[in-house]
């Protein structure tokens, strides 16, 4: 397997050398999706992003480690179903910064059917609020930036998870063509162990591959965000600062918080297992780059 990975690495390096510069998916030398003029970058599947990063033309592990993650914000939208996502601040040695937004959404609005209202709560007021929130979420997912990213991925069914990364022009993580009002759940900074870009990439990919289905009451956007930061805190020991929405993490909030339902809670056993998997993936990557340099 190691031999195959090394051969694949060298082949992709040669391919990238001859690949036309106008290829629609463009990445910087550090593997970060490039910003479009006046806008955000293309939305990229986290698994595809990992494949690109693994085959960057780096001569040693140290070159790939130069960009560092200096801050992660776990955010929650105020409207609709209270979608949760992560914003990572990436800083290079020259002081330049990039802002990466990582999130999980359903790959099809068909998931958000009103059948789920029967599961959450049968009170008429709650039913009405939930139906309204689901209509808003369906309308949001009809935005071309989401539809195009769905088409660019391999979708096996209506509940296939859409785990993506996008470089945002806004330091708040807000998308240029689809603004959402959000608040911070928790922020993480001052990592006691250096958190490099590649570590974040593999943490996100490890989480994504642990479950590639969007399960509303098990593995959804709440689970995705919480699991990634759980892995990060396990390995890199950051300072943790609760935000305005700290008590609302993992909750489905309706009618501006009039009703809320705890959909997701921390699963330490799962986080510990995935943290071990991350360690293995990082070692395999560093060994591969060292052997190919």
From TrEMBL:
Tree of life domain: Eukaryota
UniProt-recorded name of the protein: Uncharacterized protein
Species name: Cyclocybe aegerita (Black poplar mushroom)
């Amino acid at each position: 397997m190691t031999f195959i990975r090394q051969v694949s690495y060298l082949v992709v390096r040669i391919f990238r050398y001859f690949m036309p510069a106008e290829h629609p998916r463009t990445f910087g030398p550090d593997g970060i999706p490039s910003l479009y003029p006046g806008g955000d970058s293309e939305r990229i599947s986290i698994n595809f992003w990992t494949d690109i990063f693994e085959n960057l033309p780096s001569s040693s592990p140290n070159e790939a480690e130069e960009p560092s993650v200096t801050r992660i914000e776990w955010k929650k939208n105020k409207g609709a179903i209270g979608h949760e996502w992560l914003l990572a601040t990436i800083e290079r040695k020259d002081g330049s910064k990039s802002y990466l937004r990582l999130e999980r959404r359903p790959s099809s609005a068909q998931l958000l059917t009103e059948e789920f209202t029967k599961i959450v709560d049968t009170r008429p007021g709650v039913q009405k609020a939930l139906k309204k929130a689901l209509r808003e979420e369906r309308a949001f997912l009809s935005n071309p930036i989401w539809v195009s990213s769905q088409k660019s991925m391999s979708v096996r069914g209506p509940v296939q998870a859409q785990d993506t990364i996008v470089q945002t022009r806004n330091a708040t993580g807000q998308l240029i063509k689809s603004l959402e009002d959000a608040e911070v759940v928790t922020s993480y900074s001052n990592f006691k162990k250096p958190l490099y870009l590649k570590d974040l990439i593999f943490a996100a990919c490890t989480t994504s591959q642990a479950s590639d289905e969007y399960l509303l009451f098990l593995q959804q956007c709440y689970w995705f965000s919480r699991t990634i930061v759980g892995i990060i805190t396990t390995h890199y020991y950051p300072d943790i600062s609760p935000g305005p929405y700290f008590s609302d993490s993992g909750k489905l909030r309706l009618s501006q918080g009039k009703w809320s339902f705890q959909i997701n809670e921390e699963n330490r056993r799962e986080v510990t297992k995935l943290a071990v998997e991350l360690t293995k993936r990082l070692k395999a990557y560093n060994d591969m780059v060292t052997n190919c340099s």
